[in-house]
User: What shape does this take?
Amino acid sequence: MVRIRAFEDAAEDASQGGVAVYGQATSGRAKVRGPLHLSTGQEAVAAGVCAHLTANDYITSTHRGHGHTLAKGADMTRMMCELFGKAHGFNGGRGGSMHIADFSVGMLGANGVVGAGMPIAVGAAHAQKIQGRPDITACFFGDGAINRGPFLESLNWAQVYRLPVLFVCEDNQWSATTATSAMSAGAGAAARARSMDIEAVEVDGNDVLAVYRAAQELVNSVRKGDGPKLLHTRTYRVKGHVSVDKAAYRNPSEVEQALARCPIKKARALYLTMPGARADVLDQIEADAQAEIEAALAYADACDPPDPETAYTHIQTVGAGQWH
Ligand SMILES: Cc1ncc(C[n+]2csc(CCOP(=O)(O)OP(=O)(O)O)c2C)c(N)n1
Assistant: This one.
């Protein structure tokens, strides 16, 4: 959680033209350009779920995917390089924040199209089942995605074929500038899953222990071959929809309440109630994350962009069926 927070804070800063590593804000051009969707305050969902996944398990993610990717084991430096548009990035600097994929850790892709990761997850899980593998796929999606067709199709297909998928609804209560409650009929993701006889569990998404425990049971069950399950995590989107969005459309009091429920603060407080707990251990975890992000920023800043000679690589000439 602490590494994800460090990453999100640094990425936000870099998108505004400041680079935290130098200890000063620079007013020059932003190092990260384009839309940046931050998962600040939602770290417990990624951490609590991915803690139960092996390197061979898959995940699919959303447009807000940095946390899921880091929690699945992806390298922080390569992710920052991707945000900076540099050659060492996961996609050679061509994808940016919303198109990160790292197959080496089973991260099949962030996705700028809401809900589009869901059928990809189900396809991956179908392959896992056909191949008789012991692996599963965890599919992260937002509360807004449940109103799109891929949600219905994916849950249905996964249940009909009893596929090894854990659907994880990261319910941060907002869908861009609209409160999800204002546009979703019924009782939400869990109720819709139950209507298809898919077991669904609802949990406080800011309580990492609660997420961890609920995910543990569901992952074990999916891995055993019990078919798909759904975990509905209730959290909150602390930042605006994208980094430039000041979120003036919402009541500041709800943000304050969410900040008071910060999952990292909550986990810290809980740990310190335990016998033998040491605050210096937690301080060291934070210091390590800070050192790691500073090194990642420095590397990304110094790294070269993709060679202009390769500008047409990975481009398909539409109609000609030919890749360059
Ligand atoms: C198919 C599609 N429709 C609309 C959009 C524009 N859009 C981007 S993010 C977003 C809101 C998504 O909300 P949610 O799924 O709850 O995820 P969150 O942003 O809250 O993490 C919308 C409508 C899109 N990217 N794709």
Summary: Residues 279-302 form the longest helix (24 residues). The chain has eleven helices and nine strands. Residues 312 and 319 are 16 Å apart (CA to CA).
